[in-house]
Amino acid sequence: MKKRVIILGSTGSIGLSTLSVLEDLRPDFEVVGLAACKSGKVVAEQARYWSPKAVAIIDDQAAGDVQAAGQGNWDVFTGPQALTQLVDSVECDIVVAAVVGAAGLPAVFRAVELGRRVALANKEPMVVGGALLLPLAKKSGAEILPVDSEHSGVFQAMLAGRREEIRKVYLTASGGPFRTWSSEQMKMATLENALNHPTWKMGPKITIDSATLMNKALEIIEAHWLFGFEADQIGVLIHPESVIHALVEYADGSVIAQMGAPDMRTPIQYALTYPERRPCSAAQLDFATLSRLNFEPPDLGRFPAIRLAYEVLKQGGLAGAILNAANEAAVSLFRNGDIGFSEIVERTEQVLVRHEPMANPTLDDLLAADRWAREEVSRCMSC
Length: 383
Prior knowledge:
The chain is an alpha/beta fold. It has 16 helices and 11 strands. Helix 14 packs parallel to helix 16.
């Protein structure tokens, strides 16, 4: 039977790559739902091609383009709850979660509650609500499979042994465009500099996160929830070539590395077809062109975001939601030219320090913390 797929965030870089993968997986897979926050014309074009059962778009104005293009051929959900309505209304086997920010969080929770396989590309569900999401998945029988290249790498390398035999995992990072820049140089970095990633082609927000290494900080938190590792079992290595995506060290000293070309279509396809592996049109690794592989520890003085990840794991509660939202708001300020590059992590840390801890928060508590943190970043402008 065909696998039915809903893509939350179909217009972003992961969504577009997912559609490229699904083109190759036809006729065994079909798209039954598409969703985006805005970009109505792009979603309408995708819907005309894929003929889904329904389309969800949060922005009411952009919804007009989708409705006009559909002419009744697909249902259209609009407004803040549109993504959740799509997941709730359309039968599917797999939900690809690729919406940047907290906007897609309720829809992911609903997909898990319904027992779907969730191919998790965005970090927010685990960073913000991992403590709630995992028990929900256990109860419903939902599978949560990572799409992030690093977490997919850990997931694959863990198949080499038993969970209790693992000593430590390492997530790799390219180091971003500022790997060799001094702190003083980074203070003067422009938006153009920050978006000039050396190895990956991604959306602007995640590209800036890679420049600050906040992306890696969020991945540390996500790895804790996805795989159940303690903070001291999760390490980071700077690896400029971006060929090794993760390493898993076992009790006997053996280290299993997952390698591949820096192309997101490979981990996307693995999450869709697991446990099966199929030929993939993604770029293939050419060992003849690899002269050397380099590794170095991250410089926490120049890249303090990594330190914040371990602080979040220590605090628990609302800390993940605060870190994620504050960073997202600070990145927006940087993109608008309101703050400098180095201020992104500085303001994020200020907000994390100011928040009131709460044990065992509910989803509503987490969403409220998300809103507070975004507002607090702006208030810090006048501090």
